[in-house]
UniProtKB/TrEMBL annotation, chain A:
Coiled coil: none annotated. Pfam families: ABC_tran. This is Phosphonate ABC transporter ATP-binding protein. Residues 5-232 form the ABC transporter domain. CDD domains: ABC_MJ0796_LolCDE_FtsE. GO terms for cellular component: membrane protein complex. The keyword Nucleotide-binding applies. It comes from the Bacteria.
Automatic annotation (TrEMBL), chain B:
The keyword Hydrolase does not apply. It holds the Pfam family MacB_PCD. The chain crosses the membrane at residues 21-43, 278-297, 322-349, 369-396, 417-436, 661-684, 705-731, 743-765. Residues 20-236, 453-627 form the MacB-like periplasmic core domain. It is a multi-pass membrane protein. This is ABC transporter permease. GO terms for molecular function: transmembrane transporter activity. The keyword Transmembrane helix applies. It comes from the Bacteria. Its main location: membrane.
Length: 232, 784
C-alpha cells in the first residue's frame, strides 16, 4: 500500500538561552494509508514533537517529510495551514474545545474554514454528532459536559471534515477507563473505515488497538513492533 | 463565518465583563472627547464659508513699517472703499462696515437700543444673507433706509408688518424700514440687529476723507476672472497714491478671517487656528490613548485566548482569518463604544457651548456626518484591533495548546512602551493644565492699579451731552454717587491711539504709538488711580484744564521727562500741557505690559461717564436714584449700565476658555489612561497570583507584595515623567511667550506635575495590588 506519511532523517533541536536539546534525532518512519500507528516512549522522548511535525504544526530543522506525496519539510506556515485544512484532524488529551462556542459550533469550525455551505455544514455536523452519540448536547457549552462527552465532541470535530489522517495526542489521558475504552473503540471504527490514525500514548492498553507501535527514546526510534495479526 | 466572529466576540465580551467595561468605557470617553473636539473644529472652520462669492471676497488691511517692524491692521480709512472701486477694474463691489454700535431705534413710543452697523448698499449683494422682505438691489436706494433682522423686527414691531414703517434713529432722523434680514446663522462674523446706509451717515455729517483715521472695515469683491496676485499688486499702493500716509494695503481673504486675525511682522500669523490645531492634536492623543488601552488589555488577555487561537489554527484558520476575527472583535467593542460616545457628546454639548460661547450640535440629520462617523469608527476599530490581531494571530498552535504562551515577555515589553506613552501624554496635559491655570491666576491677581469695586459706566446720550453739567450736579447732590467722571471710553479699554504725537526731545526717526483717553474731572478719585506727581484734571475747578493732560508712568518713560509737570505735548496740531502723572494701571490686556497712555482734558470728546457708587447706600438704592435722574435728563434712552469689575473679568474669558478646555480634556485623558492602567494592574495581579501566593507562604508581608506589584508600574510612570516633563516645559514656555506679563516656569510646577502623576498612578494600581496581596494563598496554589 502507498505511504501517506514518510520522514527521512528528521531532526529537531530546541535551543534555550544556554542549552541545546535534541528533541528528534534522525527519525525515519513510514506510515501507510489506512494504518493505525501508536507512538510510545517515556516523557520527553520527543513523541509530541514528532506528532507536531507530522501534523504540520511545526517544521523540522533537518531531514525530509513527505505528506501525501509532497515534500513539506520547508513549507511556510501559510502552506502548512492550507495543507492541514481538511487533511488532518487532531484529538488532544485535554480536548481543547473553545469554551465560548457550543458543541455544534465547535464541531462546525473546520467546515467554516473550508467554506462549506451552511446547509451542508449543518447536515455533516449533525451526522457526526449523532454518530458520536452527543447530538442531544449540541447546544451545550463544553464546561457543561463530562470529560468523555468532551472528548467525543473533539473527535467529532476531528472527523467532520473527513480528513485522511487523525493525529491523537494521548486521547484517553484525561478519561476514566470506561470513557477511554469508548474513545479507543471510536478511533478503531474510524480506522476500519479507512482513516489513517497516528496516536501518541503512554498506555500499553491503548497501544494494543494500533497495528504497529513505534518506540522512541531520547529522540530516536528504538524499536518498531508490528502486532502479530497485522504482519503481512 | 462573520456571524461566528460576532458571536464569539459578543460571548467573550459578556464573559469578561470587567475587561469589557474598562475597554468600552475607555473607548467611549475617547470617542466622545474626540468627537466633541472635532465638532468644535468643524464649527470654527465653517465661519463665512457659505457665501457663494466667498473666494472673491476680501478684507482690505493696512500694513506699515514702524521702526523696522511691520504692523498690520484691519481698520481702514472711510474714503478707501469708494476709491478702490473707482480706481481698479478688478474691484467690482465694496462695502464699508462700521462695527456694530448700540443706537436708539424708536417706533411710535417704543424705543430700544440695537446693535447697528453702517454699510454700503453692495453689502447685500456681496454676502449671502437672505432678505425675508425687501429686495437686495433696492433696500438702500434712499439714505433714510433701515434694514432690521427678524429678531429686531419682533422686538420693535411685534407681529406688525414692518415694511415702510417710520423709525426714529437716536432721536435725530426718521428712517423707513426697507428690508428684513433673516437672523444671522451662528457661523458668521457678521452679527448685528440693524443696518443703516452709508449715505445717511454722510448726511448726518459723520463722514470724513481723512486717510489717517482708520475706523471702518472695508470689504471688496474681486472680479471672478482676476487673479489674487494681480489684485493684490494693484491694491497695494492705493493709500500712498491718494494720501501722504506711508501705508500699504493687503488683501485678507474672508474665508480665513475667522481663524487668522493678525500678522506678525507682515507675515500671516495663526490666530484662533492655533488653538484649533492644538486641540486637534489633543483629540488625536485622546483617541490614541483609548486605543492603547484596548491594545494593552487585549494582548494582556492573550493567554486566555491562546487556546482558542490554537484550536482555530489546527481547524484550518489561516493567519489572515484570525486577524480579521480580532479586528472584528475590536469593531464590535468600538461600535458599542461609538454609541456611548455619542451619548457622552450629547450630554456634554450644552456645557461646552455654555463655556465656549459656541453653538455646536450633533448633526444627526446629515448623511455626511454619519458617513464621516462610520469611517472614523472603522478607523478606530482597526487601529485598536491592529496590534492585538497581529500579536494573537502569530501565536504558535503547537505551543499554546500545551499551555505555553510563545513569548509573554516580548508582549509585556510593548505594553510597557504603551503605558509609558499614555502617561507621557497624561503628564504633558497635567503640566499644561497647571501652567494655564497659574498664568491666569497670575494675571487675575495682578494689581490693576485702580479700584473696580462699586464702579459703573454708562454711554452718554445726545440728550445727556447737552445737559451734562446739571445732570452731574444733581447726581452728586443725590448722595448716590461719591464721584463722577466723563471719559472717552470705558476704563477697561482704549478706543483711540496715535503715532502722530510729539513732544520736546522726541526723536523724529522713531515712531511710537500712544493710547488716548480723556476726562473732564475727578478721574483719579472715581477710578481710584494713584497720583505720582502733580494733580488730577478738573475742568470745574481750573478753567484752563480743557487742554491739560495726565500721563501714565509708561508715557513719562517714553517721553523721557524728568520734570513732566508743565511740559507741552502736541497732538492733532494742538498743544496740551502736562498737569500730572499717574501710576501705571491696566487698561487693555491684563496679560501685557502697560502701554504709554495720555489722558486728555475736555477738549477731546467724551462717550462714556463713570460713576463711583456711594458706600452709604446699597447698590440697588444707588442704582434706583441714578436711574431716576438719568431718565429726567435723557428720557428717550434706556438706562443701560455696566459694572467695571464684570468688564474686567471678561478680559479673562478667552484664557479661561483655554483653561477650562485643557482641564476637561486632560481630565479625560487621565481618566482613560487610569482605566487602562487599572485593567492592566488587575490583569497582572491575576497573572502573578501563584507567584504572590508562593511568596506569601514563604513569609512575604502584604506591604512587601504591594511594593512588588506596584513598583513595576511606578517605574514606567517615572520613565513617562522623564520624557513628558521636557516636552511640557518646551510646549508651555512657547505658550507663555504669547504673554508679556507671565509666570516663570520654575521647578516647583514640574515637581507638582510629577507628584500628581505618580499619585494618580499609585492610587490606580494599589487597589489591585492590595486585592492580590490580601487574597488567600491556598486558592491560587490548590489548582496546580
Amino acid at each position: 500500500m502507498e505511504h501517506i506519511i514518510k520522514t527521512t532523517n528528521l531532526k529537531k533541536l530546541y535551543t534555550t538561552e544556554e542549552v541545546e536539546t535534541t528533541a528528534l534525532d534522525d527519525i525515519t518512519i513510514e506510515i501507510k494509508k489506512g494504518e493505525f500507528v501508536a507512538i510510545m516512549g517515556p516523557s520527553g522522548c520527543g513523541k509530541s514533537t514528532l506528532l507536531n511535525i507530522i501534523g504540520l504544526l511545526d517544521n523540522p530543522d533537518a531531514g525530509q517529510y513527505h505528506f501525501i506525496n509532497q515534500e513539506v519539510a520547508n513549507f511556510s506556515e501559510r502552506q502548512r495551514s492550507q495543507l492541514r485544512k481538511g487533511n488532518i484532524g487532531f484529538v488532544f488529551q485535554s480536548f481543547n474545545l473553545i469554551d465560548e462556542l457550543t458543541v455544534f459550533e465547535n464541531v462546525e469550525l473546520p467546515l467554516l474554514y473550508l467554506k462549506t455551505p451552511a446547509d451542508e455544514r449543518k447536515r455533516r455536523v449533525e451526522e457526526v454528532l449523532t454518530r458520536m452519540n452527543i447530538m442531544h448536547r449540541k447546544d451545550h457549552f463544553p464546561q457543561q459536559l463530562s470529560g468523555g462527552q468532551q472528548q467525543r465532541v473533539a473527535i467529532a470535530r476531528a472527523i467532520v471534515a473527513k480528513p485522511a489522517v487523525i493525529l491523537a495526542d494521548e486521547p484517553t489521558g484525561n478519561l476514566d477507563s470506561a470513557n477511554g475504552e469508548e474513545v479507543m473503540r471510536l478511533l478503531e471504527e474510524l480506522n476500519n473505515e479507512g482513516t489513517t490514525i497516528v496516536m501518541v500514548t503512554h498506555s500499553p492498553h491503548d497501544a494494543n488497538y494500533a497495528h504497529r507501535i513505534i518506540n522512541l527514546f531520547d529522540g530516536k526510534v528504538v524499536t518498531e513492533n508490528i502486532r502479530e495479526q497485522f504482519r503481512v | 463565518m462573520f456571524t461566528n466572529y460576532v458571536k464569539i466576540a459578543w460571548r467573550n465580551l459578556w464573559r469578561n465583563k470587567e475587561f469589557s467595561l474598562i475597554n468600552i468605557s475607555g473607548l467611549s470617553f475617547g470617542i466622545g472627547g474626540a468627537v466633541l473636539i472635532l465638532l468644535w473644529i468643524q464649527y470654527e472652520r465653517s465661519f463665512d464659508q457659505f457665501h457663494e462669492k466667498k473666494d472673491q471676497l476680501f478684507e482690505v488691511w493696512n500694513q506699515a513699517n514702524f521702526n523696522g517692524e511691520i504692523s498690520s491692521w484691519g481698520y481702514t480709512p472711510k474714503p478707501l472703499g469708494p476709491v478702490l472701486e473707482a480706481e481698479l477694474d478688478e474691484v467690482v463691489a465694496y462695502t464699508r462696515y462700521q462695527i456694530p454700535y448700540e443706537m436708539l431705534l424708536k417706533y411710535q413710543t417704543k424705543g430700544i437700543n440695537q446693535q447697528t452697523v453702517v454699510i454700503d448698499p453692495d453689502f447685500f449683494t456681496m454676502f449671502d444673507f437672505p432678505l425675508m422682505m425687501g429686495d437686495k438691489e433696492h433696500v438702500f436706494t434712499k439714505p433714510e433706509s433701515l434694514v432690521l433682522t427678524q429678531s429686531a423686527v419682533k422686538r420693535l414691531f411685534g407681529d406688525e408688518d414692518p415694511i415702510g414703517k417710520e423709525v426714529v434713529l437716536e432721536n435725530q432722523v426718521t428712517l423707513f424700514v426697507t428690508g428684513v434680514l433673516a437672523d444671522f446663522p451662528w457661523n458668521t462674523e457678521f452679527q448685528f440687529d440693524a443696518a443703516i446706509p452709508w449715505a445717511l451717515y454722510k448726511q448726518m455729517g459723520f463722514e470724513d476723507d481723512f486717510w489717517g483715521n482708520n475706523s471702518v472695515i472695508t470689504y471688496i469683491e474681486l472680479h471672478p476672472e482676476t487673479t489674487l496676485e494681480t489684485a493684490a499688486a494693484n491694491v497695494k499702493g492705493i493709500t500712498r497714491k491718494f494720501s501722504t500716509e506711508k501705508v500699504d494695503l493687503i488683501l485678507h481673504p474672508l474665508t480665513i478671517a475667522h481663524l487668522y486675525d493678525h500678522y506678525d511682522n507682515g507675515v500671516l500669523a495663526e490666530g484662533k487656528i492655533k488653538m484649533i490645531k492644538l486641540f486637534f492634536w489633543v483629540a488625536i492623543l485622546i483617541i490614541l490613548i483609548a486605543c492603547i488601552n484596548f491594545m494593552n488589555l487585549s494582548t494582556a488577555r492573550s493567554e486566555k485566548r491562546a487556546k482558542e487561537i490554537g484550536i482555530r489554527k489546527i481547524s484550518g484558520a489561516g493567519r489572515g482569518r484570525l486577524i480579521l476575527q480580532f479586528i472584528g472583535e475590536s469593531m464590535v467593542m468600538t461600535f458599542i463604544a461609538s454609541l456611548l460616545g455619542l451619548l457622552i457628546v450629547s450630554l456634554l454639548i450644552p456645557h461646552f457651548n455654555n463655556l465656549m460661547g459656541t453653538s455646536i450640535y450633533l448633526p444627526f440629520g446629515e448623511p455626511f456626518f454619519w458617513l464621516t462617523y462610520v469611517v472614523f469608527i472603522l478607523l478606530i476599530g482597526i487601529i485598536a484591533g491592529s496590534y492585538p490581531a497581529l500579536f494573537l494571530s502569530s501565536l504558535v498552535p503547537a505551543r499554546v495548546l500545551k499551555g505555553k504562551l510563545s513569548s509573554p515577555k516580548s508582549a509585556f515589553g510593548l505594553r510597557k512602551i504603551l503605558v509609558v506613552t499614555q502617561f507621557t501624554f497624561a503628564a504633558v496635559l497635567i503640566a499644561a493644565t497647571l501652567v494655564v491655570k497659574f498664568q491666569i491666576d497670575h494675571a487675575q491677581n495682578r494689581n490693576a492699579g485702580y479700584d473696580r469695586d462699586q464702579l459703573i459706566y454708562l454711554m452718554i446720550s445726545d440728550q445727556l451731552q447737552e445737559k451734562y453739567e446739571p445732570f452731574r450736579a444733581e447726581l452728586l447732590a443725590s448722595g448716590a454717587a461719591s464721584s463722577i467722571t466723563r471719559t472717552m471710553s470705558p476704563i477697561s479699554e482704549t478706543w483711540s491711539n496715535t503715532w502722530g504725537m510729539s513732544w520736546e526731545g522726541k526723536d523724529p526717526e522713531v515712531t511710537s504709538t500712544v493710547d488716548r483717553f480723556s476726562t473732564d474731572a475727578e478721574l483719579v478719585k472715581t477710578i481710584g488711580l494713584t497720583i505720582v506727581e502733580g494733580r488730577d484734571i478738573d475742568i470745574f475747578q481750573y478753567a484752563t484744564d480743557s487742554n491739560a493732560v495726565l500721563l501714565n508712568q509708561a508715557a513719562q518713560r517714553l517721553m523721557n521727562f524728568e520734570n513732566p509737570i508743565g511740559q507741552l505735548i502736541k497732538d492733532n496740531d494742538k498743544d496740551w500741557k502736562v498737569v500730572g502723572v499717574v501710576e501705571d494701571f491696566v487698561v487693555n490686556s491684563p496679560f501685557h505690559q502697560v502701554k504709554p497712555l495720555v489722558i486728555f482734558g475736555p477738549d477731546l470728546w467724551f462717550n462714556v461717564f463713570h460713576v463711583k457708587l456711594s458706600p452709604a447706600n446699597t447698590v440697588a438704592e444707588n442704582l434706583a436714584s441714578i436711574e431716576q435722574i438719568f431718565e429726567k435728563y435723557s428720557p428717550d434712552f434706556p438706562f443701560d449700565y455696566t459694572f467695571v469689575d464684570q468688564d474686567y473679568a471678561n478680559k479673562f474669558q478667552s484664557e479661561q476658555q483655554v483653561s477650562a478646555l485643557t482641564l476637561w480634556f486632560s481630565g479625560l485623558a487621565i481618566v482613560i489612561s487610569c482605566l487602562g492602567l487599572f485593567g492592566l494592574a488587575a490583569f497582572m495581579a491575576e497573572q502573578r497570583l501563584k507567584e504572590i501566593s508562593i511568596r506569601k507562604v514563604l513569609g512575604a508581608s502584604s506591604a512587601n507584595l504591594v511594593i512588588l506589584l506596584t513598583s513595576d508600574f511606578i517605574k514606567l510612570v517615572l520613565v513617562s515623567l522623564i520624557i513628558g516633563i521636557p516636552i511640557a516645559w518646551y510646549a508651555m514656555s512657547s505658550w507663555l511667550k504669547n504673554y508679556n506679563y507671565r509666570i516663570e516656569l520654575g521647578l516647583g510646577i514640574f515637581v507638582t506635575v510629577a507628584l500628581i502623576t505618580l499619585l494618580i498612578a499609585l492610587l490606580t494600581v494599589s487597589s489591585q495590588a492590595l486585592k492580590a496581596a490580601w487574597s488567600n494563598p491556598i486558592n491560587a496554589l490548590k489548582g496546580d
